[in-house]
Inverse folding.
């Protein structure tokens, strides 16, 4: 009986050892695969960056390594915050800021100017970056969402010009809303984000019409926002829709707060009998 127990215990220990080695091996394989994937993504970004900024032979490995580290951190963040859209977005902006700060130590003054040119972001690219990170979009979904944003932007542009024209000189026309680079889509509303992750579409003007941007049931801006949201939701998974709802809720709360603050700042004109 004692021998049987010893043999059984030995077998259990051996099984645990085998499982441990297998688990360790799988983890190492996953890390290696993650590293390869990060290097591929970083190389693609590096090649694009080299077309706009000339690096010397000493700088090239430093810049590439910086981009690889950013991609590895991206993979970790996407696992850590996979159920929190706002945390995903905040982590993405922080990664890009970190890259910008470290680039400052690598580049010359002339290179910094060219580098910052590559970081400029138009409203479409800005929102696309936010949705890509916050919704964990696939490459195919990024392509589809970009098309939706461009179409909505093109519809919004002439309407913006008309309403601005109607309100010229009297402060009316465009509904109150954030300017193109106000940080509307940035978590916590903090300052200007890093610019230009998605390049540029060469479009001016903003898409900053959130729910509550303008009162009235027939508000065309809110109608276009609703159209955009509906189109985007059609291509999302159930989990991504939940993340998108988090983004929309946060945006609405920020817009409501902004309008409340503007309302409190608006001058109050007293009525008199002479009027």
């Amino acid at each position: 009986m004692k021998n049987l127990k010893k043999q059984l215990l030995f077998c259990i220990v051996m099984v645990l050892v085998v499982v441990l080695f297998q688990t360790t091996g799988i983890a190492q394989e996953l890390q290696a695969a993650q590293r390869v994937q990060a290097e591929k993504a970083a190389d693609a970004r590096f090649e694009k960056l080299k077309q706009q900024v000339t690096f010397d032979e000493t700088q090239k490995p430093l810049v590439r390594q910086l981009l690889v580290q950013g991609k590895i951190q991206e993979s970790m963040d996407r696992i850590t915050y996979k159920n929190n859209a706002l945390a995903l977005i905040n982590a993405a902006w922080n990664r890009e800021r970190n890259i910008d700060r470290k680039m400052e130590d690598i580049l010359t003054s002339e290179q910094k100017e060219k580098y910052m040119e590559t970081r400029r972001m138009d409203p479409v690219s800005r929102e696309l970056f936010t949705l890509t990170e916050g919704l964990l979009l696939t490459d195919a979904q990024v392509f589809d969402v970009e098309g939706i944003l461009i179409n909505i932007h093109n519809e919004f542009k002439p309407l913006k010009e008309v309403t601005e024209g109607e309100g010229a000189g009297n402060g009316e026309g465009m509904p109150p809303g954030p300017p193109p680079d106000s940080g509307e889509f940035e978590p916590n509303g903090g300052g200007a984000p890093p610019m230009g992750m998605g390049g540029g579409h060469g479009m001016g003007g903003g898409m900053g019409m959130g729910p509550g941007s303008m009162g009235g049931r027939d508000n065309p801006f809110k109608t276009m926002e609703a159209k955009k949201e509906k189109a985007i939701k059609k291509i999302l998974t159930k989990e991504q829709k939940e993340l998108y709802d988090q983004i929309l809720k946060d945006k609405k709360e920020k817009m409501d707060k902004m309008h409340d603050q503007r309302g409190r700042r608006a001058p109050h004109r007293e009525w008199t009998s002479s009027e």
Observations:
- Residues 2-50 form the longest helix (49 residues).
- The two ends are 107 Å apart (CA to CA).
- The chain has eight helices and no strands.
- Residues 142 and 194 are 19 Å apart (CA to CA).
